[in-house]
Amino acid sequence: MTPRRKRMAIALGIIAVVGAATALVLNAFQSNLVFFYTPTQIAAKEAPSGRTFRLGGLVVAGSVKREGVSVRFEVTDTAQTVPVQFSGILPDLFKEGKGVVAQGQLENGVFQAKEVLAKHDENYMPPEAAQALKNAAKANQKAAATLVTGP
Fold first, then answer.
1. What residues contact residue 98 under an 8 Å CB cut-off, 6+ apart?
2. Candidates 2.40.50.140, 3.40.50.150, 3.90.1150.10, 3.30.365.10; correct CATH number of 36-149?
3. Distance CA 38, CA 109 (A)
4. What is the pLDDT of residues 27-49, one digit of tens each?
5. Do 58 and 94 form a contact (C-beta atoms < 8 A)?
6. Which of 8, 77, 100, 136 has the fewest CB atoms below 10 angstroms from its CB?
7. Predicted confidence (pLDDT) per residue in 83-98, tens digit
8. What is the CA 78 to chain-centroid distance, rounded?
9. End-to-end distance of the chain based on CA atoms, in angstroms?
10. Is the pTM for the entire model greater than 0.85?
11. Strand, coil or helix: what is 23?
12. What is the SS3 assignment for 15?
């Protein structure tokens, strides 16, 4: 083998190794990527089925039902509501009417949460959840104005 062919083989080997490493890193990144959805987006079927994602909004007052370590509650963005099932210990700051972010999967219309996070103070809410609540409030105001004034 000539020196030129050896250099070419080494260069092609390096390119192949770098390409394989890049493919593995991108695949790992894609499989660990978790998106955030609101109850309105879930009702519109924008959320992926069979994949883990995050659901955020407010815990509906009066919806928390405890059965041992299993808890059922509803999350709303003031426009739509999604039932949530969680088995485990809830955070201390978890309360009705407060913000929550749950991570899990949607199964038969019920969000099966693997992890539940509660907001840590009165001023914090994930930006996506805050924007979703603002959008839902605007939509509710428009709908109320249409009912009062007519179409």
1. 58, 59, 118, 119
2. 2.40.50.140
3. 14
4. 877 666 678 888 998 888 888 87
5. no
6. 8
7. 999 998 888 888 888 8
8. 17
9. 82
10. no
11. helix
12. helix
